[in-house]
Design goal:
Layout lengths: L5 H10 L10 E4 L2 E4 L8 E3 L2 E3 L9 E2 L4 E4 L2 E4 L11 H17 L6 E4 L4 H9 L4 E5 L4 H12 L4 E5 L2 H15 L4 H19 L4 E3 L4 H5 L3 H4 L12 H9 L2 H15 L2 E3 L5 H8 L3 H4 L8 H7 L5 H4 L6 H4 L2 H11 L9 H10 L2
Parallel strand pairs: 8-9, 8-11, 9-10, 11-12
Antiparallel strand pairs: 1-2, 2-6, 3-4, 3-5, 6-7
Helix pairs in contact: 2-11, 2-13, 5-6, 5-10, 6-10, 16-17
GO molecular function, one term: ATP binding
Keywords: ATP-binding, Nucleotide-binding
Protein name: Asparagine synthetase B
Length: about 350
């Protein structure tokens, strides 16, 4: 069992508790395979064999998050609870307690922080004594934001500078580790992989990331626009937020596999069970204000230890903030894959991975 004490997982199975106080788990227990409700630890099976990495198996099938496989039958065992919303003030206080508790509990000198200068990674940087690493192309938004935020926090920053040759070298490894070739997945996983390689080369074995905050706290524009955004089915902000949480298992599988292949163990305190539970209890107005301000509860929860210039900063997604999406598009076009071609970047990735 990876990620949690087997006895904790055993009790969770007995009680059906989806959030038993862990940061995720997956593995074999009492002759059955089990994976936590958010899929924070990957798990695959092939007949009677199983592994945390798909590359270990001939025909890997992922065990869905929250499911158990026993006697060749797969069934759901855990589902996220439907928690009635609390008052905004008490919800923000609960989020602050959960976030600071989860982050402050991380110890050790073998870890670094993936730092982009936005709210999520700044929460980590403000409370952990660990080196900060940022990744991106020269002049990218993420590098500029990371430098300005590090200065505000009076922290040193290591910048991992990307170039197209480095992307091309890393591309086959990311495709093999994740088993994916679609453009969006690779655009997200590539900068994480390269940053993790640098962190590991500097002697750190764990990488602390702010993953999950956008999904839990309403960080997406399509959540803020619910029910008017066609990209979500829900007719409320809380419902749209739940749709985003449901995407986490697929995202986390991709990122964890890429980071493992780079040689580091990801640490994601903002996806610990206590933070998830506190986030699920937030009312819609604590996720997105009437003025359209997103991740409002997390921003207010962080104010006691973050400057407002960071706490209320907007940030681009990693594939755009690092300029990886732009440069992969450039590489694809230079290799003869034109934009008029359907999904030309994915076609380029598939051709490169096949070489």
């Amino acid at each position: 069992m990876r990620g949690a004490d087997p006895e904790v997982v055993r009790r969770a199975l007995d009680t059906g508790s989806a959030l038993p106080g862990t940061t995720g788990f997956a593995g074999e227990l009492d002759g059955r395979l089990v994976r936590d409700v958010l899929g924070r630890v990957p798990l695959f099976f092939d007949g009677g064999e199983w592994s945390h990495r798909p590359t270990d198996l001939a025909e890997p099938t992922p065990l869905p998050a929250g499911h158990v496989r026993e006697d060749d039958a797969v069934s759901r065992r855990f589902s996220l609870p439907d928690i009635e919303p609390v008052e905004t003030a008490s919800g923000i206080e609960a989020v602050r307690d959960a976030v600071t508790g989860a982050v402050d509990s991380i110890g050790g000198d073998d870890q670094a922080i993936a730092f982009s200068g936005g709210l999520d990674s700044a929460v980590l940087a403000a409370r952990l004594d660990a080196p900060l690493y940022a990744v991106g192309f020269p002049g990218s938004h993420d590098i500029d934001a990371a430098r300005s935020a590090a200065a505000l926090l009076d922290r040193d920053l290591t910048v991992v500078t990307l170039d197209n040759q480095r992307l091309e070298r890393a591309l086959p490894a990311v495709v093999e580790a994740t088993g994916r070739t679609n453009a969006m997945d690779i655009q997200i996983a590539l900068p994480l992989f390269v940053l993790a390689q640098e962190v590991r080369a500097d002697g750190y074995e764990r990488l602390v990331l702010g993953q999950g905050a956008d999904e839990l706290f309403g960080g997406y524009a399509k959540v803020a626009r619910a029910p008017d955004d066609p990209r979500v089915d829900a007719d409320t902000v809380r419902g749209a937020r739940r749709e985003m949480i449901d995407t986490l298992p697929d995202q986390l599988e991709r990122d964890v596999l890429a980071l493992w292949d780079a040689g580091v163990e990801p640490v994601v305190p903002l996806l610990s069970d206590e933070v998830v539970e506190a986030a699920l209890a937030l009312p819609g107005e604590a996720l997105v204000t009437a003025r359209g301000e997103r991740k409002w509860a997390l921003r207010l929860a962080a104010r006691p230890f973050l400057p407002d210039r960071i706490a209320f900063r907007e940030k681009k997604a990693v594939q755009y903030g690092s300029l990886v999406a732009r440069e992969l598009d450039r590489l694809a076009r230079e290799s003869g894959f034109k934009r008029r071609q359907d999904d030309h970047v994915t076609a380029f990735i598939e051709s490169t991975a096949g070489n």
